[in-house]
């Protein structure tokens, strides 16, 4: 039988820590997505994680549906990952020289994603996409890049226009501090709109270096590519001499063993970026692609890129242990947990009469709260042929994602948190399960749902 929901509604220790942090750290957070501005309440300061669970400074336990925004694929503090980190750290934290484990991790990635023929490790997803764009511009000799509204590729200047994630949460169209010259080199188009892409190529075809796209959009909630979109995008780029950058920082090794590329099997990109899971929870990311393109990077070619901490042995050890632990059995557990959470959330919202649609990208998913009346419109297959559950129309792009009922999410989020389930503090984010979300964790979520669904309905 399901355990009784715990009450985690009061968190005075976390509140005190937030007040203290805000005196010395801007906004009290080192990344805006950690702020609770859009959901309200006290941001929890987590001090411990084990498997599917996290513990806040007030001593409350929560089932975690954030998973460190993705990296904790195997669950928090997985013994094999911790052992690998301890072993690596005990030998020294880094030497600023090459280390044997780096090639082992690169081999593990290439074995799963063969079009990553060569890799370069960096420390963040932001650096990975920034480097991919520099390579694309160097390879084509062209200045312009195309990105899609609601996609997030990190916080480099050229990629912040109409970006998802924290900018979507805060309702920002872009970032101050980006020069008009830089912003002017980015063409922003609606996602899943092939006509708009065709028009951009018709007008600027010989100036476009690359189209960068999330393999499946996951930073405005989960919005998979429409059936045929990725293949058509790739064909269009190549016809016009532009390169495709598939950003798998979020989907990589999480949507499935070979990322969303492996799920969709639509087309092969020229360059690909990884982050999050690839570092197992430590700062590590990668850019990869065709050897002929990647070899434009220094020291082989003229494109400069480097990093003091790139390929850090402790981070590489964490990533390697995570990928080695991410075997078929782990992906089966991940998929089962994902499907069960989707089904139980959708059932609870349907029961409470809350219009919603659950969208997936492999094992990734998110729940959009609809504004309209409950209907059967969301049930069945979404635009990508990915199944959708629910009672609201599917979300296809940034405009439809922005039309969601954010107040309903706020009420739902707060009730779930108070009943010991930690969700992303924004309606514009994916939800993350781990391979450690076992029956006890799922039962805990199930117990919290009726009250949260009722709160969302109110
Ligand atoms: N690309 C995608 C698709 C992401 O989801 C993110 C982060 O959420 C990034 C790039 C940036 O990665 P980082 O936060 O490690 O710089």
From TrEMBL:
Signal peptide: none
Cofactor(s), names only, from the UniProt record: pyridoxal 5'-phosphate
Pathway(s) annotated for this protein in UniProt: Porphyrin-containing compound metabolism; protoporphyrin-IX biosynthesis; 5-aminolevulinate from L-glutamyl-tRNA(Glu): step 2/2
UniProt KW Plastid keyword: no
Annotated localization: Cytoplasm
Catalytic activity: (S)-4-amino-5-oxopentanoate = 5-aminolevulinate
Chief location bin: cytoplasm
Gene Ontology MF term list: glutamate-1-semialdehyde 2,1-aminomutase activity; pyridoxal phosphate binding; transaminase activity
Database matches in PROSITE patterns: AA_TRANSFER_CLASS_3
Record bears the keyword Cytoplasm: yes
InterPro entries: 4pyrrol_synth_GluAld_NH2Trfase, Aminotrans_3, Aminotrans_3_PPA_site, PyrdxlP-dep_Trfase, PyrdxlP-dep_Trfase_major, PyrdxlP-dep_Trfase_small
Keyword vocabulary terms for this entry: Cytoplasm, Isomerase, Porphyrin biosynthesis, Pyridoxal phosphate
Entry GO terms, CC: cytoplasm
Subunit structure: Homodimer.
Family from the record: Belongs to the class-III pyridoxal-phosphate-dependent aminotransferase family. HemL subfamily.
Name the record gives this protein: Glutamate-1-semialdehyde 2,1-aminomutase
